[in-house]
Design a protein that fits this description.
By secondary structure, the chain is mainly alpha-helical. It has helices at 2-35, 43-64, 80-114, 128-153, 159-169. It starts with a helix and ends in an 8-residue tail after the last helix.
Length: 177
């Protein structure tokens, strides 16, 4: 099950990266279009939705790979047993917070779908479509946080800590800056 979750999270991270690439392409198209006096409308709407999708699809991937901002000044100085307790406490708080965020995002998007709410920009589509990227990202982040919490409660190291240790072992301290 954990392997399937990793694959889904990695695929979502790749999808987030693809959204960034699409933003690049659309911005180039818009820039060239302006230079050629072509009226290209709606690109800003699509780019804003892609920005949100890129961020939300990549949340769980960034979390699992140690790319979230974490304050480890205390964690690095305490004994392993205390670190596990602090990690479990932080992950439990994160799980509760992300669960609430996920519930709220899901309910909000469901209401948009239920009331057939439409986007108000130049590109008029059902607004639940771009909102669903937020919901998917939240559910993936919740699954990732719960998985890490279970790992820590079982006595293992969380994957974000392992990823940082692996980078440090290779001499890469760029994430610490």
């Amino acid at each position: 099950m954990r392997q399937a979750l990793r694959r889904v999270i990695d695929a979502a991270g790749a999808l987030g990266a693809f959204c960034v690439f699409l933003i690049f392409v659309l911005m180039i198209v818009a820039g060239v279009g302006r230079q050629l006096n072509l009226a290209i409308s709606g690109i800003n709407d699509v780019v804003s939705w892609l920005c949100a999708a890129a961020a939300f699809f990549a949340m769980a991937h960034a979390f699992r790979h140690g790319d979230f901002v974490r304050v480890t000044l205390i964690l690095d100085k305490v004994p392993a047993r205390m670190r596990r307790l602090l990690d479990a406490t932080c992950l439990a708080i994160a799980a509760i917070s992300v669960a609430y965020l996920t519930y709220s995002a899901t309910a909000f998007t469901y209401e948009s779908w239920e009331f057939k709410e439409m986007a108000t920009g130049l590109v008029v589509i059902p607004i639940w479509l771009p909102q669903s990227t937020f919901v998917i990202g939240c559910w993936l982040l919740l699954a990732a946080v719960l998985d890490e919490l279970l790992t820590v409660l079982k006595g293992g190291k969380p994957s974000y800590q392992l990823a940082v240790e692996e980078r440090h072992a290779k001499g890469d301290f760029s994430s610490d800056i």
